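User: Structure please.
Assistant: Input sequence and predicted structure:
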Amino acid sequence: MILACQPLTDKLFQQFSSLVYQQTGIFLKPEKKELLNARLGKRLRHCQIASFQQYYDFVLNDASGVELIHLIDAVSTNFTSFFREKTHFDYLSSTVLTEFADQGQGGDFRVWSAACSSGEEPYTLAIVLSEFAAREPRFRFTIHATDISTKVLAIAQKGVYAVDKVQAVGTDLVRRYFQRGKSGSAGLVKVKKELSQAISFQRFNLMDPYPWQAELDVIFCRNVMIYFNRETQQQLVDKFYTCLKPGGHLFIGHSESLTAISNRFKQVTTTGYRK
């Protein structure tokens, strides 16, 4: 049996912080030390490793990169909900999609949920876009949903949630887009195939090169940049601008702002920007 390991030292916290920053751009502030101590402690017990130093060496020497992914999963914060920060979805429906239809643009409407977590955001986007498509038969859409955490992506791909998680969706939309569980699955709902088939889920590090060729109409990257330092935020905003079509939109979290970042976007709504 592995004995309880010694607490994470300041020196090792800095080493882990540097590694996470190099790999993901996530900046771990000193006050995150106790959180990291607790989360990595669970990983040490799982791997039967006796100390944080040994675990750090294990991550560095794992040629497969699998343990690095587990480390990143451990430090990622993944709070989300259906229709979170609803004003963004209202603006998308009332303004962005209406303009797209009025201009008679052909082809797919392409959206990137750039930190999709456990799936609530891309599924909400799929609901909004499906509702619009029901009124505009020529409208088609594609959603790319990415996250750096394999743990939450596995949840997202299953598309199964507790009933109380979909309360914000509304009774009619739940009936239309979710299947209620029975017997052993009572109290759960599963996203219907017609909703999930428009979404492609993929593990992606925001620091990596943009993986798709086609330009995007909309990017949702909300409540993510707060974990990055100014330099990384700047790089990310520049990348988003390049990925968008002229006139494309970027939505960030209500607790975030582009004010202190050099950018070419025009703000059009609360934490919503247009190229």
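The two ends are 57 Å apart (CA to CA).
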